[in-house]
Specification:
Length: 306
Protein backbone atom coordinates (compact mmCIF):
# COMPACT_ATOMS: atom_id res chain seq x y z
CA UNK A 1 0.00 0.00 0.00
CA UNK A 2 1.38 3.38 -1.00
CA UNK A 3 1.16 6.08 1.66
CA UNK A 4 1.07 9.80 0.86
CA UNK A 5 1.02 12.60 3.42
CA UNK A 6 0.06 15.66 1.34
CA UNK A 7 -2.04 16.38 -1.73
CA UNK A 8 1.08 17.51 -3.59
CA UNK A 9 3.08 14.37 -2.78
CA UNK A 10 0.37 12.06 -4.06
CA UNK A 11 1.08 10.25 -7.31
CA UNK A 12 -1.33 11.03 -10.13
CA UNK A 13 -3.44 7.98 -10.93
CA UNK A 14 -4.05 6.92 -14.52
CA UNK A 15 -7.40 5.34 -13.67
CA UNK A 16 -10.45 6.35 -11.68
CA UNK A 17 -10.56 4.81 -8.22
CA UNK A 18 -12.95 3.64 -5.54
CA UNK A 19 -12.42 5.88 -2.53
CA UNK A 20 -13.54 6.42 1.05
CA UNK A 21 -12.86 9.26 3.47
CA UNK A 22 -12.69 8.90 7.25
CA UNK A 23 -10.58 8.35 10.34
CA UNK A 24 -11.22 4.57 10.55
CA UNK A 25 -10.28 4.53 14.24
CA UNK A 26 -10.41 0.93 15.44
CA UNK A 27 -11.26 -0.39 11.96
CA UNK A 28 -14.38 -2.10 13.31
CA UNK A 29 -16.92 -4.14 11.32
CA UNK A 30 -18.61 -0.98 10.05
CA UNK A 31 -15.33 0.22 8.58
CA UNK A 32 -14.70 -3.23 7.17
CA UNK A 33 -18.04 -3.10 5.31
CA UNK A 34 -16.85 0.08 3.64
CA UNK A 35 -13.56 -1.57 2.69
CA UNK A 36 -15.42 -4.57 1.24
CA UNK A 37 -17.51 -2.19 -0.86
CA UNK A 38 -14.34 -0.52 -2.11
CA UNK A 39 -13.11 -3.91 -3.29
CA UNK A 40 -16.48 -4.74 -4.84
CA UNK A 41 -16.78 -1.45 -6.72
CA UNK A 42 -13.15 -1.32 -7.83
CA UNK A 43 -12.84 -4.95 -8.89
CA UNK A 44 -9.25 -5.22 -10.06
CA UNK A 45 -9.01 -1.44 -10.21
CA UNK A 46 -7.54 1.03 -7.73
CA UNK A 47 -8.98 1.47 -4.25
CA UNK A 48 -7.85 3.73 -1.44
CA UNK A 49 -8.80 5.96 1.45
CA UNK A 50 -8.23 9.51 2.58
CA UNK A 51 -7.68 9.64 6.32
CA UNK A 52 -6.14 11.91 8.94
CA UNK A 53 -3.30 11.74 11.42
CA UNK A 54 -5.79 12.35 14.25
CA UNK A 55 -9.49 12.63 14.84
CA UNK A 56 -10.76 16.02 13.55
CA UNK A 57 -12.70 16.42 16.82
CA UNK A 58 -9.38 16.48 18.70
CA UNK A 59 -8.33 19.53 16.65
CA UNK A 60 -11.48 21.48 17.47
CA UNK A 61 -11.69 20.31 21.09
CA UNK A 62 -8.23 19.11 22.17
CA UNK A 63 -9.04 18.94 25.89
CA UNK A 64 -12.41 17.23 25.69
CA UNK A 65 -11.95 14.76 22.86
CA UNK A 66 -11.72 11.04 23.64
CA UNK A 67 -8.40 9.33 23.01
CA UNK A 68 -7.99 7.19 19.87
CA UNK A 69 -8.28 3.41 19.97
CA UNK A 70 -5.15 2.79 17.94
CA UNK A 71 -2.05 4.59 16.74
CA UNK A 72 -1.75 5.89 13.18
CA UNK A 73 0.90 3.25 12.43
CA UNK A 74 -1.48 0.54 13.62
CA UNK A 75 -4.32 1.86 11.47
CA UNK A 76 -2.15 1.93 8.36
CA UNK A 77 -0.78 -1.55 9.03
CA UNK A 78 -4.31 -2.99 9.21
CA UNK A 79 -5.54 -1.04 6.19
CA UNK A 80 -2.69 -2.51 4.18
CA UNK A 81 -3.67 -6.02 5.31
CA UNK A 82 -7.20 -5.32 4.08
CA UNK A 83 -5.80 -4.90 0.57
CA UNK A 84 -6.03 -1.17 -0.14
CA UNK A 85 -3.75 0.26 -2.81
CA UNK A 86 -3.11 3.67 -1.28
CA UNK A 87 -3.81 5.87 1.72
CA UNK A 88 -3.61 9.65 1.72
CA UNK A 89 -2.86 10.57 5.35
CA UNK A 90 -3.40 14.27 5.94
CA UNK A 91 -2.31 16.26 8.95
CA UNK A 92 -5.57 17.71 10.25
CA UNK A 93 -4.66 21.34 10.88
CA UNK A 94 -6.18 24.75 10.15
CA UNK A 95 -5.42 24.40 6.43
CA UNK A 96 -7.49 21.23 6.13
CA UNK A 97 -10.14 22.47 8.56
CA UNK A 98 -10.74 25.59 6.44
CA UNK A 99 -11.19 23.73 3.14
CA UNK A 100 -14.73 23.54 1.81
CA UNK A 101 -15.81 20.03 0.91
CA UNK A 102 -15.76 21.02 -2.79
CA UNK A 103 -12.14 22.21 -2.57
CA UNK A 104 -11.18 19.16 -0.53
CA UNK A 105 -12.61 16.76 -3.10
CA UNK A 106 -11.17 18.73 -6.01
CA UNK A 107 -7.67 18.45 -4.54
CA UNK A 108 -8.16 14.70 -4.34
CA UNK A 109 -9.56 14.44 -7.87
CA UNK A 110 -6.63 16.41 -9.27
CA UNK A 111 -4.49 13.38 -8.39
CA UNK A 112 -6.98 10.52 -8.09
CA UNK A 113 -10.05 10.65 -10.35
CA UNK A 114 -13.01 9.24 -8.43
CA UNK A 115 -15.32 6.60 -9.91
CA UNK A 116 -16.95 5.51 -6.65
CA UNK A 117 -17.06 7.40 -3.34
CA UNK A 118 -18.23 5.20 -0.46
CA UNK A 119 -19.01 6.71 2.93
CA UNK A 120 -20.71 5.69 6.14
CA UNK A 121 -24.22 6.84 7.01
CA UNK A 122 -24.31 10.47 8.21
CA UNK A 123 -20.66 10.98 7.24
CA UNK A 124 -19.59 14.57 6.70
CA UNK A 125 -16.37 16.41 5.93
CA UNK A 126 -15.10 19.79 4.81
CA UNK A 127 -15.43 23.17 6.49
CA UNK A 128 -18.37 23.21 8.89
CA UNK A 129 -19.12 19.63 7.76
CA UNK A 130 -20.37 20.99 4.47
CA UNK A 131 -19.98 17.71 2.59
CA UNK A 132 -22.84 15.48 3.70
CA UNK A 133 -25.79 13.39 2.52
CA UNK A 134 -27.63 16.55 1.47
CA UNK A 135 -24.89 18.33 -0.49
CA UNK A 136 -22.74 15.52 -1.88
CA UNK A 137 -25.24 13.97 -4.36
CA UNK A 138 -25.31 17.06 -6.58
CA UNK A 139 -21.51 17.32 -6.49
CA UNK A 140 -21.20 13.64 -7.43
CA UNK A 141 -23.65 14.10 -10.31
CA UNK A 142 -21.78 17.16 -11.57
CA UNK A 143 -18.45 15.32 -11.54
CA UNK A 144 -19.83 12.02 -12.82
CA UNK A 145 -18.94 9.65 -10.01
CA UNK A 146 -21.06 7.21 -8.03
CA UNK A 147 -21.85 8.05 -4.41
CA UNK A 148 -22.84 5.48 -1.78
CA UNK A 149 -23.73 5.99 1.88
CA UNK A 150 -23.69 2.67 3.74
CA UNK A 151 -26.13 2.25 6.61
CA UNK A 152 -24.60 1.82 10.03
CA UNK A 153 -23.82 -1.73 11.11
CA UNK A 154 -25.73 -3.06 14.12
CA UNK A 155 -24.97 -5.74 16.68
CA UNK A 156 -27.66 -6.62 19.21
CA UNK A 157 -29.42 -3.33 18.42
CA UNK A 158 -26.25 -1.36 19.16
CA UNK A 159 -24.67 0.77 16.44
CA UNK A 160 -21.14 -0.44 15.77
CA UNK A 161 -18.97 2.65 16.05
CA UNK A 162 -15.58 3.83 17.21
CA UNK A 163 -17.29 5.28 20.28
CA UNK A 164 -18.70 1.87 21.20
CA UNK A 165 -15.32 0.22 20.61
CA UNK A 166 -13.62 2.85 22.74
CA UNK A 167 -16.05 2.26 25.61
CA UNK A 168 -15.49 -1.50 25.42
CA UNK A 169 -11.72 -0.99 25.59
CA UNK A 170 -12.12 1.23 28.66
CA UNK A 171 -14.40 -1.38 30.28
CA UNK A 172 -12.01 -4.20 29.43
CA UNK A 173 -14.78 -6.12 27.66
CA UNK A 174 -12.56 -8.14 25.33
CA UNK A 175 -15.34 -10.57 24.38
CA UNK A 176 -17.71 -7.92 22.99
CA UNK A 177 -14.79 -5.96 21.57
CA UNK A 178 -13.75 -9.00 19.52
CA UNK A 179 -17.29 -9.22 18.12
CA UNK A 180 -17.48 -5.63 16.88
CA UNK A 181 -13.89 -5.55 15.61
CA UNK A 182 -14.13 -8.94 13.94
CA UNK A 183 -10.75 -9.78 15.48
CA UNK A 184 -9.06 -9.62 18.86
CA UNK A 185 -8.07 -6.29 20.39
CA UNK A 186 -4.43 -5.60 19.56
CA UNK A 187 -1.58 -3.24 20.28
CA UNK A 188 1.08 -2.66 17.64
CA UNK A 189 4.61 -1.33 17.37
CA UNK A 190 6.20 -0.96 13.92
CA UNK A 191 9.83 -1.11 15.04
CA UNK A 192 10.41 -3.69 17.76
CA UNK A 193 14.08 -4.45 18.49
CA UNK A 194 15.32 -7.66 20.17
CA UNK A 195 17.76 -5.38 22.02
CA UNK A 196 14.79 -4.35 24.18
CA UNK A 197 14.55 -7.88 25.64
CA UNK A 198 15.71 -8.62 29.18
CA UNK A 199 15.54 -11.76 31.32
CA UNK A 200 13.75 -12.18 34.67
CA UNK A 201 14.32 -15.72 35.88
CA UNK A 202 12.85 -18.02 33.26
CA UNK A 203 10.92 -15.19 31.63
CA UNK A 204 11.87 -13.05 28.65
CA UNK A 205 10.41 -9.58 29.01
CA UNK A 206 10.17 -6.22 27.26
CA UNK A 207 8.16 -3.04 27.70
CA UNK A 208 6.04 -1.02 25.28
CA UNK A 209 4.78 2.50 26.00
CA UNK A 210 1.97 4.32 24.22
CA UNK A 211 0.95 7.94 24.65
CA UNK A 212 -2.56 9.38 24.54
CA UNK A 213 -4.24 6.09 23.61
CA UNK A 214 -7.49 4.62 24.95
CA UNK A 215 -6.35 1.99 27.46
CA UNK A 216 -7.64 -1.28 28.82
CA UNK A 217 -8.04 -1.39 32.61
CA UNK A 218 -4.79 -1.92 34.48
CA UNK A 219 -4.22 -5.61 35.12
CA UNK A 220 -2.78 -8.83 33.76
CA UNK A 221 -3.80 -10.34 30.43
CA UNK A 222 -3.01 -13.51 28.53
CA UNK A 223 -1.78 -12.56 25.08
CA UNK A 224 -0.28 -13.83 21.86
CA UNK A 225 2.85 -12.07 20.58
CA UNK A 226 2.87 -11.87 16.76
CA UNK A 227 6.22 -11.09 15.16
CA UNK A 228 6.93 -11.97 11.55
CA UNK A 229 5.91 -15.61 11.09
CA UNK A 230 6.21 -16.38 14.79
CA UNK A 231 3.41 -16.47 17.37
CA UNK A 232 4.39 -16.74 21.04
CA UNK A 233 1.95 -17.14 23.95
CA UNK A 234 2.62 -15.02 27.01
CA UNK A 235 1.06 -12.43 29.29
CA UNK A 236 1.12 -8.68 29.74
CA UNK A 237 0.96 -6.36 32.75
CA UNK A 238 -0.89 -3.16 31.87
CA UNK A 239 -0.65 0.08 33.80
CA UNK A 240 -1.86 3.56 32.93
CA UNK A 241 -0.15 6.73 34.06
CA UNK A 242 -3.02 9.16 33.65
CA UNK A 243 -1.47 11.79 35.90
CA UNK A 244 1.24 12.42 33.32
CA UNK A 245 0.89 14.64 30.29
CA UNK A 246 0.69 13.13 27.76
CA UNK A 247 -1.06 10.13 29.30
CA UNK A 248 1.03 6.97 29.14
CA UNK A 249 -0.12 3.40 28.60
CA UNK A 250 2.63 1.01 29.77
CA UNK A 251 2.67 -2.66 28.78
CA UNK A 252 5.18 -5.09 30.32
CA UNK A 253 5.27 -8.26 28.23
CA UNK A 254 6.46 -11.69 29.44
CA UNK A 255 6.94 -14.97 27.55
CA UNK A 256 8.66 -18.24 28.34
CA UNK A 257 10.69 -19.15 25.27
CA UNK A 258 11.13 -18.29 21.63
CA UNK A 259 12.87 -15.77 19.43
CA UNK A 260 11.64 -12.33 18.41
CA UNK A 261 12.95 -10.46 15.38
CA UNK A 262 13.52 -6.85 14.43
CA UNK A 263 10.41 -5.31 12.91
CA UNK A 264 6.64 -4.99 13.40
CA UNK A 265 5.19 -6.65 16.50
CA UNK A 266 1.55 -7.11 17.51
CA UNK A 267 0.07 -8.10 20.87
CA UNK A 268 -3.26 -9.95 20.66
CA UNK A 269 -5.21 -9.75 23.92
CA UNK A 270 -7.07 -12.97 24.77
CA UNK A 271 -8.47 -12.46 28.27
CA UNK A 272 -7.82 -10.85 31.63
CA UNK A 273 -6.50 -13.08 34.41
CA UNK A 274 -8.56 -13.53 37.61
CA UNK A 275 -8.21 -10.86 40.32
CA UNK A 276 -6.31 -13.26 42.60
CA UNK A 277 -3.57 -13.44 39.98
CA UNK A 278 -3.22 -9.67 39.67
CA UNK A 279 -0.55 -9.28 42.34
CA UNK A 280 3.05 -9.69 41.32
CA UNK A 281 5.65 -11.34 41.64
CA UNK A 282 6.17 -13.53 38.59
CA UNK A 283 6.03 -16.80 40.55
CA UNK A 284 2.44 -16.03 41.48
CA UNK A 285 1.58 -15.41 37.83
CA UNK A 286 3.21 -18.67 36.83
CA UNK A 287 1.19 -20.56 39.44
CA UNK A 288 -2.07 -18.82 38.53
CA UNK A 289 -1.61 -19.38 34.82
CA UNK A 290 -0.04 -22.84 34.86
CA UNK A 291 -3.37 -24.48 34.04
CA UNK A 292 -3.70 -22.38 30.92
CA UNK A 293 -3.03 -24.33 27.76
CA UNK A 294 -1.77 -21.11 26.26
CA UNK A 295 1.00 -20.73 28.81
CA UNK A 296 1.88 -24.43 28.73
CA UNK A 297 2.41 -24.11 25.00
CA UNK A 298 4.60 -21.05 25.49
CA UNK A 299 7.03 -23.02 27.64
CA UNK A 300 7.45 -25.75 25.05
CA UNK A 301 7.55 -24.43 21.52
CA UNK A 302 7.02 -21.70 19.01
CA UNK A 303 3.92 -21.79 16.89
CA UNK A 304 4.88 -20.90 13.34
CA UNK A 305 2.25 -19.52 11.00
CA UNK A 306 1.82 -21.27 7.69
Amino acid sequence: MKIFTTFDSMEKLNEACALSIGVFDGIHLGHQRIIKQLHKKAGKGCKGIVTFDKRPASYFNPLGEALPIMTLEHRLSLLEKYGLDFALVLCFDHTIADLSFESFLQKIMDKAPIKNLILGENASFGKERGGNETTLPSFAHKHAFNLTFLKKSLMQNNVISSTLARNLVTDGNLKKLKKILGRRYTLFTPNFSPKELTKKGKWHTFQLCFENLTALPSGTYTISIENGYVSLPGFALLTTESSLSPKRYVVDVFFGSGTLQQGPLTLLFINQTPPKAQNHPLKQFEHSLSSSLLLQTSMKNITTKE
